Each structure stands twice: as C-alpha cells, then as structure tokens.
C-alpha cells in the first residue's frame, strides 16, 4: 500500500496506477488500474531474447529512476529470499561450503556502494506484455525495497532460461541492461563505477538466490550446472 500510494514511475517502467487505497479495521483495500485495458493484456510463460530485453529495459529504467533513493516505508532490504528472512532454508542446506559462505555473500551484496529500489520478485510471471508496444508493465510489489539491482536481474534471467541458454545469452542480455541503465541514471552518477560494481555483483546475486533454493527446494530446475558454476566462482573469490 505504501508503494502504490507514495511512489511513482514513468512510461519506461510502467506500473498500474493506484486509484484508491485504505485500511478498514483489520482489512486493507487497494484499487489498481486494469493493465489489460491499458494495453498490457498479454501474459507469457516463455519469451525470446526480444521479450527478455523488454523486461530488462523495464528493470534498468526502474533501477535508474530510484538510484540512491531511500526505501522509505518499504522493506529496507528488498526481495523475499535474503538471508535475514530465511534462517530455516539456510539451516536445511546440504552444501556445507556454500552454507558457511552465505553470510559473506549477503554482506557483499548489502555492502555495495550503489543501491536502488528493487522490485523484489521480478520473475517473468510478474511482467505484462503488449501486442502494440515494445515496453512492458510490472505488477506484484510485495517485496519491493532497497538493494543492488543485480538481485532483480539475476532473479529475472533465472526465471526465463534453462542452463544452456544462460551460458549462451546472459553476457549479451547484461550488455543490454547496462546500456539501458546508462540512459536511465542521473548524469551525476559515475556510471563507469556503477557498471563495474554491479557487473561484479551479478555472480553474487545469482549465487545468493541459488543458496536459497538449495535450502528451500533442492530439486528445483534452477539448481543446475550454470548455478553451480557461478557458485564455485563466488566461493573462489571469497
């Protein structure tokens, strides 16, 4: 409710307009614009590179708009899988090496210099497509809050691709994201330093979600060779 009442975006990172919101006893009511009627009436279970680029453009413009913003009234740490909220999944992990590194990985992500507001659940299912426009809209801001934008990017890409596609497509998709982010951030931001830091954060963000999955659902399809490769890279770094 705080998000929809107090925050706004633009046409490059479209969200539904909040028409009304209020509390009534123990119940809360939010009335939102119908994105279907606004032209974003397509939902997709899979997307090609062009579709992924549209969603990454949304994320880049969203992150650029809120670069350096304090998440007032939102979660101080966005996303639903960060370490502080998931002690049971951490305890259930079988990978002892990654388990012992979990706090360090979380600290690296939390300690990054450039922070923004992250969507927090930026999976493919939460994007609404249009048959007429190249842009997309996004919904479901339950976990919106502060953090490194790579958390959204890694989580989104993992929601779209199998392991072989990740190996082949992630580098180019990251290039697209950073091209869009450069155009979206304020000119006072040192973009070269931002890009350098966030590109380095990508493997940590991916591995952090992989860590969560190992404790939550070890048989999940995202627990694959690509995730294991990035986790090994992170473990070598720390």
UniProtKB/TrEMBL annotation:
Entries under Gene3D superfamilies matching the protein: 3.90.1200.10
InterPro entries in alphabetical order: CHK_kinase-like, EcKL, Kinase-like_dom_sf
Coiled-coil features, chain-numbered ranges: none
Domain of life: Eukaryota
SUPFAM superfamilies: Protein kinase-like (PK-like)
Domain CHK kinase-like residue range list: 30-187
One Pfam family it belongs to: EcKL
SMART domains in UniProt: CHK
Protein name: CHK kinase-like domain-containing protein
